[in-house]
């Protein structure tokens, strides 16, 4: 078994998870608001002017999204003076691209009524338009949910590995892409956990340092190892925030850098040779580092004449690429134990 420390999902996978959960929250909140509007009251309210009828549980219904299937709880109604027909669901919903784009952007910059109205109209058609009060209610629920998640206590999270990366999203058509900073990790029990998402003006040292300091202020303890790409701002911020943690250069990013310097016809061969360097069946320690170094120099001897730039790209950062081979997770939470 390889000792390569990689998360179960990369950044794109984490964002897709957020998208799927977020789409469910938006549509479920909108559906509940539709029912409340139909009955003339909120879920647990009673009033003199309420419409005849009452809620009678929920029925699961699955809809398709570009992030995968999402299961909703469709409210069931009894004894109404007219049948309830959801403007949102109808016989089914399959066009949720606008909702996903809306939620991904909204979670990191705050949702506006105009954004929600436009996205719902585009995704579901004008017949599904909601009132401004309903949209406001959905916006507030999403904001409250995300604020609670973004401010939650992290002191109980015991990390072995922390992964940091940034991704850029266009919040509006035609607008420049804006960075979203993301941190996730693997706990001492081997469980992946999403730790934080936040907007950044750029991926320089200051935005990353502020992001990591917020995680620490909420109780996050130093991990054994932090994995980053080669962005100087992120590297500096990690060294400031977690000076005792080992810092690993992301092998996936470096593999892409190496392959960018190789002709397409040879990329499959070079890619396989690259991963053979690091895919070791051994325990962490100096012997593992030495074996990876030996394989890297064998790689260099094999490709130096044909692809010198690719070889330099590998060897220039070799110590950063083998950090994970020098460390093992300790039994104590958040401690660092380089071997």
Gist?
It contains 11 helices and 7 strands.
Question: Overview of this structure, please?
Answer:
The chain is an alpha/beta fold. It has three domains: 11-150, no CATH class; 153-248, Nucleotidyltransferase, domain 5, CATH 3.30.420.10; 250-339. The chain is built from eleven helices and seven strands. It has helices spanning 11-39, 97-109, 113-124, 132-150, 205-217, 232-241, 251-259, 267-278, 286-303, 308-316, 318-321; strands at 54-63, 70-78, 159-169, 178-187, 192-199, 225-228, 246-249. The strands form two sheets. Strands 5-4-3-6-7 form a five-stranded mixed beta sheet, with helices on both faces. Strands 1-2 form a two-stranded antiparallel sheet. A hairpin with an 8-residue loop joins strand 3 and strand 4. Helix 1 crosses helix 2 (97-109), helix 8 (267-278) packs antiparallel against helix 9 and helix 9 packs antiparallel against helix 10 (308-316). The longest helix has 29 residues, at 11-39. It is elongated and about 80 Å long. Residues 1-9, 91-98 and 329-339 have low confidence and may be disordered.
Structural class: alpha/beta
Mean pLDDT: 77
Q: What is the ordering of alpha helices and beta strands? A: HEEHHHEEEHEHEHHHHH
Oligomer: single chain
Beta percentage is: 15-25%
- Unreliable stretches (pLDDT < 50, length at least 5) are 1-9, 91-98, 329-339
Largest sheet: 5 strands, mixed
What is the overall number of helices?
11
Gyration radius, to the nearest Å? 25 Å
Q: Assign a percent range to the helix content.
A: 40-55%
Overall spatial form: elongated
Tell me the domain tally: 3
Main sheet: strand order = 5-4-3-6-7
């Amino acid at each position: 078994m390889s000792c390569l420390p990689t998360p179960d999902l990369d950044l794109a996978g984490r964002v897709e998870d957020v998208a799927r959960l977020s789409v469910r929250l938006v549509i479920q909140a909108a559906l509940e608001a539709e029912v409340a509007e139909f009955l003339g009251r909120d879920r647990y309210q009673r009033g003199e002017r309420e419409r005849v009828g009452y809620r009678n549980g929920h029925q699961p219904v699955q809809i398709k999204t570009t992030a995968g299937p999402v299961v909703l709880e469709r409210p069931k109604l009894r004894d109404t003076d007219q049948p309830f027909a959801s403007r949102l669901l109808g016989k089914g919903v399959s066009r949720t691209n606008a909702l996903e784009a809306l939620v991904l952007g909204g979670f990191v910059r705050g949702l506006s009524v105009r954004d929600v109205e436009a996205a719902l109209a585009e995704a579901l058609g004008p017949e599904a338009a909601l009132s401004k009060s309903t949209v406001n209610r959905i916006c507030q629920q999403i904001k409250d949910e995300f604020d609670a998640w973004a401010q939650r206590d992290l002191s109980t999270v015991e990390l072995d590995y922390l992964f940091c990366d940034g991704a850029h999203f266009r919040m509006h058509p035609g607008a420049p892409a804006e960075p979203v900073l993301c941190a996730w990790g693997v706990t001492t029990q081997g469980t992946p956990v999403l730790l934080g998402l936040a907007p950044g003006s750029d991926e320089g040292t200051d935005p990353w340092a502020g992001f990591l300091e917020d995680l620490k202020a909420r109780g996050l303890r130093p991990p054994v190892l932090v994995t980053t790409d080669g962005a100087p701002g992120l590297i500096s911020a990690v060294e400031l925030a977690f000076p005792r943690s080992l810092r690993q250069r992301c092998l996936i990013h470096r593999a892409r850098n190496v392959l960018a310097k190789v002709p397409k016809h040879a990329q499959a061969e070079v890619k396989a040779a690259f991963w053979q360097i690091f895919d070791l069946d051994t325990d962490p320690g100096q012997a593992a580092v030495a074996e990876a170094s030996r394989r890297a120099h064998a790689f260099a001897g094999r490709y130096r004449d044909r692809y010198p730039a690719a070889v330099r790209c590998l060897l220039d950062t070799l110590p950063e690429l083998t950090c994970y081979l020098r460390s093992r997770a300790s039994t104590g939470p958040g401690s660092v134990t380089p071997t």
